[in-house]
Every structure is written in C-alpha cells, then in structure tokens.
Amino acid sequence: MRYRRPGLDGLTHLLLIIGAVIFGLPLWLALTASTHSAGDLQSGIAPLWFGDQGLANYWQLLSQPMPGLGVSALRLLGNSLVMALGIALGKIAISLLAAYAIVFFRFPCRTLCFWLIFVTLMLPVEVRIVPTYGVVARFGLIDTYAGMILPLIASATATFLLRQCFLSLPSELFEAARLDGAGPLRFLKDFVLPLSRTNLAALFVIMFIYGWNQYLWPLLAANSPDHATAVISLKNLVQSTDTLPPWQLATAMTVLTVLPPVVVIVAMQRFFVRGLTDAEK
Amino acid sequence: MTTFERHSLTPWLLLAPQLVVVAIFFFWPAAESLRQAFYVQDAFGLGERFVGLANFQHVLASPGYWHAFGVTALFSLLVAAGAMGLALLLAVLADRVLHGARLYRVLLTWPYAVAPAVAGLLWLFMFDPVLGVLTHALAAIGVHWDAQLDPGQALALVVIASIWQQMSYNFVFFLAGLQMIPASLLEAAAIDGAGPFRRFFGITLPLLSPTAFFLLVMNSVYVLFETFATIDSTTLGGPGGATRTLVYKLYEDGFVGRDLGGSSAQSVLLMILVGVLTFIQFRYLERRVAY
C-alpha cells in the first residue's frame, strides 16, 4: 500500500513489544516468585528469574491442605471447574431452548416472555445480592454446587445472542425442513444446532471465563472450604495471616488459577473475539 | 421467519427452564429488594415495619453514601481514561502491522481471562511493601509507597489493576472498529497528501467515536460491579473508605452491618443507575444502526 512508511513500522513493532512485555510482567513475576522458597522471597526484591523450589511449592499446594482453608488446591480447582462448566453449559442449554421457542414458534405472550427474559440483562447479581442469598438459603442450596450456579444462570445474555443468531438463518432452510417433514426437535438437532456451532463455541468461551472468575457470589454461597473456588482461596491465602503472606504459595496458586481461562482464551482466540463483540451488539 | 404453528405446548416446554430459573433467581430477589427498601427490620430480624421512603432519605442524606459515589465516579473516570487511551494506542499499532498481528493480539488480550480478584493480587504483589518490584523502583526515585496507609496510593493500586485488566477488553473492540474502517477512505486521504497523524485525527478517530462511547459505558459498568473483587482482595475498601465503591458499601451494609432496609434502598438506587446507563446505551445503539 502506498501510504505505508517503513520507518514507522519498526517503531510500531517496538511499541507493541514494550506493551506486550508490560502487560505480561505481573504474571511473569508471579511465575518466577512461585519457584522460590519463602526465605528467598523475604530477603529482598521479588526475583525476576526462576528459582529451584518450583516443584516443591506446586507439589505442596496440590497435595496438602492449604493453610487457613484446610483443602488442597486440587479440590479448589475442581470446584472452580464444576462451577465454570455448570454456568457455561447450563446457561447455553436453557438459553438455546428459550431462544429456539421465541424465534420458531408463535404463541400467546411471546413478546411478554421475551421482555421478561430481556429485563434480566440489566441487573447483575451484585445488585440483588442480599435477597438472592435469602432465596437460595430458603431452598437449602447454600454451600451446594446448584446454589453456586443457578443464580448466575438467571440472565439473558445468551438468550439474546442466540435469538439474533437464529433470526439470521435463512427462512428457506425452515421451509425445506418442513417439506421434508422435520418436526421441531429434528429441525433443532439437524439444522439449527450445526449451523450455530461457531456462535455456541464463542458463547462457551465467554461464559466459561465468566463462571471461572466469579467472586462475590461464590464467596457468599460457598461458605465452607469444601465448595470454595480457586479465586476465593487466593484472598484467604494472602489476607488470613498476621505476618507476611506466604507469597511463594500465593503466587503459585495465582498461576494455577489463571492458567485454565488463559489457555481457553488463547486456544480459542477466534471464538473469543467473536463472542466478545457479538455479546455486546 | 415462518414458524411451527400447530404446536401449542412445545414452546412452553422449551421456555420453561429459563422462565423458572429467571423467576426464582432473578424476579423474586429483585422484587424482595424493592419491597425491603420500604421497610425497616428490627434488630433481631423478627419483625418489620413499613417506613415509606425513609430508607432512601437516610441513604441519600448520609455523607458515607456520597463519598462512595464520588469514589466510584473518580474510579470510573480514571479506568475509562487509562484503559481506553492505552487500548486505542495499542490497537492502532496492532492494526498497522502486517507480520505477527495474531501474536500481538494474543499477547495483549489474555488479561481478559484473569479474574478481577487475581488482577488485584498480581498488582498487590508488585506493590508489596517488602518485596514488591514497583515499591523498590518507586523508593529509588524517592517515593514512599504504602497502599495500606495512603488513601491515594490505595486507590491508585486498584485503578492500575483495573486498567491492566480492562485494557484487553477495550483493545478487542477498538481493533474490530479499526478493521471496519474502509481502507479506500484512508488511501484517498493519503493520495491527497494527508500524513499518518492527519489521517488518524481526521478519519480514524471520528469513525471510532461510536465504539469509544460504547466502551465508556461498558467501562463504567465494569467499575461499578466487577471491581468489587479487586477491592475485596486488596484494599478491603480502605484506608478510611478511599476505595469503598457503591457496590462495596452495599455489601458491607447488607452482609456485615445487617442493615437490610438501607442496603435494599442502595440496591434500588443502583438499579436506577444501571437502568439509566442501559437506556443511554440503547439510545446510542439505535443511532448507530440509523447511519
């Protein structure tokens, strides 16, 4: 292209590399600190390079109960996984059915149903946190996976998105399926689902990260360590002690907590960008 | 779109799971919030008394609420300015490069996957009074850092952690916006003799303004709700309420202080605030569709 300037290109790469390094620095420092012993860390500045205690630190986290919490990191990561998958898959499942009903059927109160679901877009769980706790407690769901997952599924982002996606399918498709004698379930399974695969994958990436990173709700709903999540445990690790935080464990736990969602986002980069920009349209 | 006409029960069966979940876990609590905002509970939580708008009057007359409002507004402003400025700069750069564009995109977007609570801890570690890298760097230039005692530094800590995280979100949208700008426009300007900076301020920036406005609203919503975790894992709202945002105060009054009426009134006020933000956003979306 005529208007490119080679000199500016070098500067562009330089600035981008500086940006990437600065954005990577916090995680890099956590990674290097997690391979040093507690004594090493207390004797000066956080190290910029790896030490030799990495295996010992991670092994301690994964095999022994965490100080101040009493369960191992393995359990915490497992809880996070259950919660993230429960939210992602649960939300996609109920939203898929609801969006399918709204787009492909005519029935009384269709618009009302859509608006009832649509209104939930406006209020995140943080706003109605106290009464939500009351409702979940009334069902005896405090400290259960169901109680941790259900209130976070009660929102319309996914329904809204899938509705847009279904509306964009060509209507000839629907007529062809009717001519072949396909009923509602056949049509969903053989036509709609395969055609919305990309959107479903994008939705899954966004919802998995949303679920894995939840903080306030699991903090309240999982009040025993047995159901605590990885994200919640970090606060415990850093703030529970009166003395210096055990940074070698805290940074190792940070790395373990950050890894699954970061792997998802990097591996599914294409879907992630699509999911993010779709979700806000 | 044509529809399945002869099925009258099927749509209800399909809708049932979502409607049930939304009714129980959304509308019930939201209605409860609304109701409790007009009642006062006695100290033992046994009885309650209708008090009209007294809870709202009480909340709106308390200096603590307005202080939290001010903290939230300042917080939003700083995060929006910082995260959007950085994201725009990096997106413009990433849009220019031909080689390695995908790698840069991955390297600049992964912080989106980091939980806000974890983002807070990563920066808490960098600013640790004993071994923090940045604490030592600041000491070298004569700045004494102690976010546990200094209100301004505590706010700076959570603002920096939030900017770090929110940048990646803004970056994705700015980059998508940049890629939608027709190359022919920029080429025409180049042929007319406009340099890179002239093209940026004359064409790119005006065409990005809808994206920027949308991001401004989204960044405010982020600060309103998501930063609860950042604050709770680092400064706990302190020192002296310097980092106590509206949602943090709501949580403290409702769960720690057990003030149901007061916290419900705050919930309702937040609902109104979010409603206004959503309304603004939809108005803007309509306009964007129009042109």
TrEMBL record, chain A:
Topological type in the membrane: Multi-pass membrane protein
Keywords tagged on the record: Cell inner membrane, Cell membrane, Membrane, Transmembrane, Transmembrane helix, Transport
Cited SUPFAM superfamilies: MetI-like (SSF161098)
Domain ABC transmembrane type-1 per the UniProt entry, residue ranges: 77-268
Endpoints of the signal sequence: none
Protein location: Cell inner membrane; Cell membrane
Transmembrane helix as UniProt keyword: yes
Transmembrane portions of the chain: 12-31, 81-105, 112-130, 142-162, 191-212, 247-268
InterPro entries in the cross-refs: MetI-like, MetI-like_sf
Family membership noted in the UniProt record: Belongs to the binding-protein-dependent transport system permease family.
Assembly notes: The complex is composed of two ATP-binding proteins (UgpC), two transmembrane proteins (UgpA and UgpE) and a solute-binding protein (UgpB).
Reported function: Part of the ABC transporter complex UgpBAEC involved in sn-glycerol-3-phosphate (G3P) import. Probably responsible for the translocation of the substrate across the membrane.
Annotated protein name in UniProt: sn-glycerol-3-phosphate transport system permease protein UgpE
Organism: Salinicola endophyticus
Gene, per the UniProt record: ugpE
Automatic annotation (TrEMBL), chain B:
Transmembrane segments: 12-31, 65-94, 106-126, 171-191, 203-225, 265-285
Compartments, as annotated in UniProt: Cell inner membrane; Cell membrane
Pfam family, one: BPD_transp_1
Predominant location: membrane
Membrane topology category: Multi-pass membrane protein
Gene3D superfamilies: MetI-like
Alphabetical UniProt keywords: Cell inner membrane, Cell membrane, Membrane, Transmembrane, Transmembrane helix, Transport
Subunit structure: The complex is composed of two ATP-binding proteins (UgpC), two transmembrane proteins (UgpA and UgpE) and a solute-binding protein (UgpB).
Protein's recorded name: sn-glycerol-3-phosphate transport system permease protein UgpA
Organism: Salinicola endophyticus
Gene (name only): ugpA
